[in-house]
């Protein structure tokens, strides 16, 4: 089922959680809503589920207006951040709940319910825990029970609120790959909320970056990471260094780098900022370039396969973070306190007052 | 040096007070309890049985006493279920929904705790009594509330109003609304959600509230005394009957009836203890299971 959110506005008192947000989700897609806390991503998810009333706009399921439909009639599966399993019911009863509360006419028989629940528990690989209570399960197991429970009613849409938020790093990684495989298997339209950019980029078909109740960018993980629409998206997707400069007549001069920017041909002498990721900066001991920036290595942190260097620019005193592959670091043998030249390899430039 | 070391080894619990402090505190507490709780309780039974078991039983089966017992059971039998329903509804509304006037509702629920029961009784007399606001209308329709059984039931409902709601509100607030939302999304209607999700989660708190509510309903004196009119065998509840007997210097009978109320208190305490223990077991079991689950 496809979902469309049209000009959705939601206020909590004087706080505007969503400001005229529009979004289309195609049938069978796995979409991530990514943003910092307070960006409105969970509110949008709850509005799609019908758990939150909206102050303006509409929600369409398969091009049909579902704004006034109660959550019972929307045929959505919702997985809560803290699972919200029924604590006094066993795993089996939890998963069976959605089937047991169906109106008598459409309710499956006891045997059918039993078969279905066991099939779902097999799908989430928890068949052996059917008679345990939620409190007896680990976080990852609870999460999978919550998912099986949501799938039991054969939802047309699966909505997941920070599905891996409360899990430790290793389980998180396993579960999100598992979710991706599960989605490839059952192909139900799915939307999940996350504040972890890595999770969004790894799992989703498309990523919706949200901030302050608005959508900043919608695109494939590739597009979002490599062609960020604005400074917010760049900064939210990972560590980034800022180089200040100016744009004048279709050319940008950012520190040592000069770039053609034909799209800004009309711009006259405007301040601009170039954004560079830590792994996109070269460090050299010597350089033919007279304009190269000098910097002092102030700290070195080896972190597994990479080495993170903290540098202080000698001209304006700003901090620069650089990430080197371990091999390169050992080859160059940089030391703390050493003075080097830095050169950004890949700059994304935005005008300061007028982001495109 | 070695002496102080030895000393610190000897006191196994570094945070407890010296033993003489502990003993003094415990003795004070026990003396206080004995003087103000155990002695009166023992006195009630001793006085009641002073003229032997047959006099004791006679005082209980005498018609006026039986009528008082019946009336007390009737008042509690109406007040407790009503306040159970009201308490659950109010707690549900306050804990799970946001609405205008929520604070006013909370304050109103607390009102019977804040107001002296005698005043509560007086309010009913002023409202429904013959000289009261609604008195003439009620009299014209031949309805008697004050100085009759309905007045006693009304007063009992009023004073026991907060018990169930007060017990449930913090519990339901702590549990949040996620489970209910999950049930709704899974297709449960409001009644199914309440019956299968909310109620099982609050059952121990509810039982606790009902026990306290019942104890108060049966033991209430002040409010009931004002609206009762003390008609023997008709509008006397157990506590009022005790007062009348006592004022008539019929001490054995007074204490015999009082012993019933004392027994009720003991049963209430036992039931309360049991529910508390049972719910603790339930929580402890869950906590233990939780610990196992986390390490697994």
Strand order of the largest sheet of chain A: 6-7-8-3-9-10
Mean pLDDT of chain B: 85
Give the helices and strands of chain B as they follow along the chain: HHHHHHHHHHHHHH
> What does the average pLDDT of chain A come to?
89
**Poorly predicted runs of chain B:** 290-296
Please give the oligomerization state of what you see.
Answer: heterodimer
Helix content of chain A: 25-40%
Shape of chain B: globular
How is the main sheet of chain A built? 6 strands, mixed
Number of strands of chain A: 20
Q: Strand portion of chain A, in percent?
A: 25-35%
Strand content of chain B: under 5%
Main β-sheet description of chain B: none
Question: What is the terminal separation of chain B in angstroms?
Answer: 47 Å
Low-confidence stretches of chain A: none
Order of helices and strands of chain A: EEEHEEEHHHEHEHEEHHEEEEEEEEHEE
Q: Helicity range of the residues of chain B?
A: over 70%
Which chains make the largest contact? A-B, 32 and 24 residues
Give structural notes.
The complex is a heterodimer of chains A (about 350) and B (about 300). Chain A is built from nine helices and 20 strands. With about 350 residues, chain A is an alpha+beta fold. Chain A is elongated. The relative contact order of chain A is 0.12. The mean pLDDT of chain A is about 90. Chain B is globular, with a radius of gyration of 25 Å. The C terminus of chain B is likely disordered. The chains are: A alpha+beta (about 350), B mainly alpha (about 300). Chains A and B meet through strand 6 and helix 4 of A and helix 10, helix 11 and helix 14 of B.
Chart the SSEs and their pairings.
The complex is a heterodimer of chains A (356) and B (296).
Chain A: E1 3-12, E2 15-25, E3 30-34, H1 41-49, E4 56-61, E5 64-65, E6 76-79, H2 91-100, H3 110-123, H4 139-152, E7 157-161, H5 169-186, E8 189-194, H6 197-203, E9 206-211, E10 214-219, H7 221-226, H8 231-236, E11 241-248, E12 251-254, E13 257-260, E14 270-276, E15 281-284, E16 293-303, E17 306-313, E18 319-325, H9 326-332, E19 339-344, E20 348-351
Parallel strand pairs in A: 3-8, 3-9, 6-7, 7-8
Antiparallel strand pairs in A: 1-2, 1-4, 4-5, 9-10, 11-12, 11-14, 12-13, 14-20, 15-19, 16-17, 16-19, 17-18
Chain B: H1 2-10, H2 19-48, H3 52-61, H4 63-96, H5 102-114, H6 117-128, H7 135-140, H8 149-160, H9 162-175, H10 178-185, H11 190-219, H12 222-228, H13 238-247, H14 251-295
Helix pairs in contact in B: 2-14, 3-14, 4-8, 4-9, 4-11, 6-8, 6-12, 8-11, 8-12, 9-11, 10-11, 11-14, 13-14
